[in-house]
Amino acid sequence: MFSHPLLQGSAKDALNSPNSLAISRKMATEFFGSPASAIGKTIRYENHKDFTVKAVFEDMGPRVADQVDFVMSWLAYVEEDNGWAKEWGAVDPRTVILLRPGASAAVVEKKMTHFLDKFDTEQRNIRIELALQRFGDYYLHSEFRNGVPSAGRIEYVRLFSIVALFILLIACINFMNLTTARSVKRAKEIGVRKVMGALRGLLIRQFIGEAILMAFVSVLLAMVIVVSVLPAFNQLTDKHITLPVSQWSF
Length: 250
What we know:
Elements: E1 6-8, E2 20-24, H1 25-32, H2 35-38, E3 42-45, E4 49-57, E5 70-72, H3 74-79, H4 105-112, H5 135-138, E6 143-145, E7 148-151, H6 154-185, H7 187-195, H8 200-237
Parallel strand pairs: 2-4
Antiparallel strand pairs: 1-4, 2-5, 3-4, 6-7
């Protein structure tokens, strides 16, 4: 479903038994020297249960939301002191489903909303309703209120967007103030050009052109600074921020 490439083993039998385990390239290298050497080997989990490595997957990239080094089967997870995960009120781990091509998520959600009404759940005084959320939306909208996504990392996006707009507003005000201050010095130039026959529209286009040229040079300078500082910033914050120069929207 998530298309993480397998280096060794097959997806069909990677987790076909409670003692099966799929591990990352990094984990396979640290434990056994290489992905190929890890297949069929045993790893002891929490010093009380042995798992057999059935598959090795490629290390997950920095943009993958759920970073893991190993994956066990659902049966093994429930057996390892996680029996609560089988209760109706359990909201973690999340359940991920794949709809058929062309299926309407809204229709599916409507049909499953009151699905639990027909079962005798542990939460007898609470009515549990089910809903769907696009997997790609969960990273930014991971907090819910009354079953509706209400907050999450999107709050940071909004906060920094407001800060960015505020800084841009200050820059625009400063630019206008500086331009107004410089206009006094250029009054003589404007007067001479008007005497020489320059039209009002021509002068307007000149000043707008100068402003656009200055902004363009500023953008280039800012890009050079960002490209130079970004590696150090990523190392300091342990992030993997990149410039999406290949995207037309950027």
